[in-house]
UniProtKB/TrEMBL annotation:
It is found in: Nucleus. The keyword ATP-binding does not apply. PROSITE patterns: ETS_DOMAIN_3 (PS50061). This is ETS domain-containing protein. One of its GO terms (molecular function) is DNA-binding transcription factor activity, RNA polymerase II-specific. InterPro entries: Ets_dom, ETS_fam, WH-like_DNA-bd_sf, WH_DNA-bd_sf. Residues 130-213 form the ETS domain. SUPFAM superfamilies: Winged helix' DNA-binding domain. It comes from the Eukaryota.
Amino acid sequence: MLCYPEQFTIADDETPLEELKTPEIFSCNNPFNNSWLLNQPEKQIKSTETSDLFVTNDFTDEVLQVVDKDDFTPSMSFSPADSSSDGLPSPSTLPSEPPSLETTLAHAIEPKKLAEWMVEDYVSHKRRRPYLQEFLRLLLDKPHYLDHASYININKGIFKLHKPQEIATLWQNVKGRYTVRNMTYDKMARALRLYYKSGIMTPVNGRYTFQFGPQSGFNTSWIPKLNAHKSLTYSTNHPISNAK
DNA sequence: CCAACCTTTCCTGCTT
DNA sequence: AAAGCAGGAAAGGTTG
């Protein structure tokens, strides 16, 4: 069965098409690591919420403005030959061996792309890369990633990964942790299953389907941003039998 | 250096 | 048969 029969229409989403690309690959041991971002002045942090974990979507735009003022020149460009439409290597072309340094650098993410994934730790008030659960929250909050993952029951926090391998690769890049092997959906899913015991995730039937658990803060300390997106319409051509 | 935390990696067995 | 799911076990990377 196809993974993503769902179709979405976002009536007033003015995001231009060129912005709808998945951030490129980067590595923590390359020149484009987050040291640049972490060295930005503290005034860029806007803490306006008191939830246990404040995902800092709100300061992203401000950070990006500063990036632009610093005359940052993107080093990457895309062409149709770059395999998938989102700029990431397709699962079938992912190497089984660790990428060479040249490969890693060639796919380095831009700091301005990394900015949209940074979160502010509520304890230390420092910006850091997200945990896996936070990464998924951010991913699901971004309308331009609806083709990667989306809620299938937004009130219960049930979501489905439509492009699991692409998300796993993106997760590896956002996490920025040096690992010898590439991240796979299988390994990312194992990490998600570890959340079951702590209640951050709740087991739910369905292929590539997960549910935020009570300890994730879903619908208590935070709600999906798309829940407030009144112009979002959702339809499906096929029944999602596993949705509760 | 150490310990805690959060994965990452590998694996076996089961299910779809 | 292949792929995904569940979860044990151990190891790794980061951070304070």
